[in-house]
Each structure stands twice: as structure tokens, then as C-alpha cells.
Write a structure and sequence with these properties.
By secondary structure, this protein is of the alpha/beta class. The protein is built from 14 helices and 9 strands.
């Protein structure tokens, strides 16, 4: 069994109630939801999808990490599953006030959300009522001590690939091969220019002495005294920049947003949860462009943030920003 699935505490999605609310799915399941299609473009542990399915919605879940597809399968283990190498399907019932059964359905696909238009077309998921992006990675990835997402295991290889079958470049490859100016650009996504130049110079010097291969190698370069943000671990932002680069996360987001918008029906909602300013800037810019060209209206003029009780329960929610727009 996948090591993620064996963990007692499954990944907890953020702002789930808020997402269900903006999608108009609050309350009990209703037969009117049965005809509605939703795409969870970042399936993760399946927390958001599960709540949509419970209310009768039909979900297409996409994730680039096969490990997370296994987590979602486990999350939905009460559902009779039909599985194959690349997809999973099933259905679940949820009682309504009058005790009638309302069926929701789902299909889980291994793929990159950058290809959401092609994936949705292949699965017949057109005229979609809602598309959800919960960006970043699962907290289960940080518990994975083998792939180098976290700095908990200094001996782990600095990999950071979600899908080794399609991603050839590891984080260590970037650190060992990029030029000084390219390293500065990589870290400038989340760090200031001055800090990025300083870090890039240290990497160039370090790799001349020893090839950078492990989490510990990178931590040694960062040093214990470096601090870009006093509220978080000093290695958090450099690791974040590396992960973004390995996964081409910002480029994929820029590609996926317009493709997703095309898949929505009139009145359909694009729902995006971002966790850092680089993501949020892309989302805000895209939303603004769509409002200006008259094809959408903002459902949330200001981002929705997590309530204090959720932050106490799930610290990851502290940096989450939920933005929603409606297709006209």
C-alpha cells in the first residue's frame, strides 16, 4: 500500500466549506445537482471532491501524482470503485431531507492540469458548472521523506518531482546546471532580488567543491542563520522556489486558467485557492482580464481567507486565498 494511504491523518483540504458555499452546494443533496459537472483540477486527497459528490455532483478529478490518486481512492473507499492503470470511477449516495437517494459520480485521472482542456474533452466533461484549483502541494508531500519536498530528512535526494515519468529534471539538476542569472531568476519568484543574488552566488561556489545531491547539501548552503521571513523556517522559501521551478507550476497555471474558463458553461464558476503571492498575482491578473473583456464577473471582490478555528486545526490554511469568478 502507498505510504501516503497508510498515514493515520489524511490530508485535510483548506476552505472546503467556503468552496461548497460559493458553488451553491450548501445544505442537503438534491436531484438538481445530478446533471452538474465539476472538475477538481488538483484532486489531492479528494476532500473537496468528496463533498461535491456527497451532494450529487459529478466530478472529474485530476492529479499529476499517482500517489495522491491512491489517497483519493482510500478517501472514497466506501464507494464501489472500478479501477484501471490510469483512471478510477465510482459513485456515492447521500441522503436528502426526504430520505431519497441522490447519486453523485466521479472519475479520477492521472494527468497535469495544464492539459485540462484535453483531459476534459476526452472524458466528455464539457459545459462544466464549476472548476476548482487548490494550488500548491499536499501536506502529505511534506511528510514524504524520500522525494525532498521537505527539509526533514537531510539524507533524501533533492528530487521534488510529482511525476517522474513525465518530469525529467530534479531540483538537484537545476542547482547543479543553471547559470548564475538563471538561479537568480528561479529564486526571485519568492525572494527579493538581493537575497536571490546572494543565494545564487553561494550555490555556484558550493557546487564547484561538491555536487549538490541531497536535502542536506542544500541546507548546508543555506546555513542556519539565513532568514527571509521570521514567521517560517528559513529554508521554506528557497525550497518553495525550487519546487515551483521543478513542477513548472506558474507556467502550468497560466496555461490552465484560460483552458478552464473555456470549459465552463454560462454561470459556471472558476474557483482558485492560492498559497503564495506569485500564484495569486497570476490569478488576479487573469480574473481582471476576463472582467474587462466582459466575459466574466467577480464573485469575490476580495479573497476569502480561512477562519481562525480552521487555521488552528490546519496551519496550512493561514496563507490560503480563495478567489472566484463567474462566467457570463
Amino acid at each position: 500500500m502507498n505510504q501516503f494511504v497508510k498515514q493515520e491523518k489524511i490530508h485535510e483540504s483548506v476552505l472546503v466549506d467556503e468552496v461548497i458555499n460559493v458553488l451553491g452546494l450548501t445544505g442537503f443533496a438534491h436531484s438538481k445537482y445530478q446533471a452538474r459537472k465539476y472538475i477538481d483540477a488538483t484532486l489531492g486527497g479528494g476532500g473537496i471532491s468528496l463533498e461535491i459528490i456527497r451532494r450529487g455532483g459529478n466530478v472529474l478529478g485530476i492529479d499529476n501524482d499517482e500517489s495522491m490518486l491512491e489517497v483519493a481512492k482510500e478517501r472514497l473507499k466506501e464507494v464501489p470503485l472500478r479501477s484501471s492503470k490510469k483512471s478510477y470511477g465510482g459513485s456515492v449516495t447521500c441522503p436528502t431531507p426526504d430520505q431519497e437517494s441522490v447519486w453523485g459520480s466521479f472519475k479520477l485521472i492521472h494527468g497535469n492540469f495544464a492539459n485540462i482542456k484535453e483531459i476534459a474533452g476526452n472524458e466528455g466533461f464539457l459545459d462544466v458548472y464549476g472548476i476548482i484549483f487548490d494550488l500548491g502541494i499536499s501536506n502529505l508531500h511534506y511528510e514524504d521523506i524520500e522525494r525532498g519536498f521537505s527539509f526533514k530528512n537531510p539524507k533524501a535526494f533533492l528530487d521534488m518531482r510529482l511525476n517522474p515519468k513525465t518530469q525529467n529534471v530534479r531540483a538537484s539538476d537545476l542547482l547543479n546546471s543553471l547559470r548564475l542569472d538563471q538561479l537568480v531568476e528561479l529564486f526571485s519568484v519568492v525572494l527579493g532580488k538581493k537575497e536571490s543574488k546572494r543565494l545564487a552566488a553561494k550555490i555556484i561556489l558550493a557546487r564547484e567543491i561538491k555536487k549538490i545531491e541531497t536535502v542536506g547539501d542544500f541546507l548546508n548552503i543555506l546555513g542556519s542563520k539565513i532568514s527571509y521571513n521570521k514567521k517560517i523556517h528559513p529554508a521554506s522559501l528557497p525550497f518553495l522556489a525550487l519546487r515551483i521551478a521543478v513542477g513548472s507550476e506558474l507556467d502550468n497555471l497560466k496555461k490552465a486558467l484560460p483552458s478552464s474558463f473555456e470549459l465552463l458553461n454560462k454561470g459556471g464558476k472558476l474557483v482558485v485557492i492560492s498559497f503564495h503571492s506569485a500564484e495569486d498575482r497570476i490569478v488576479k491578473r487573469f480574473f481582471k482580464d476576463k472582467v474587462l473583456d466582459g466575459s466574466a464577473k467577480l464573485f469575490t471582490k476580495k479573497p476569502i481567507i480561512a477562519k481562525e478555528e480552521e487555521i488552528l486545526r490546519n496551519p496550512k490554511a493561514r496563507s490560503a486565498k480563495l478567489r472566484v469568478m463567474t462566467k457570463i
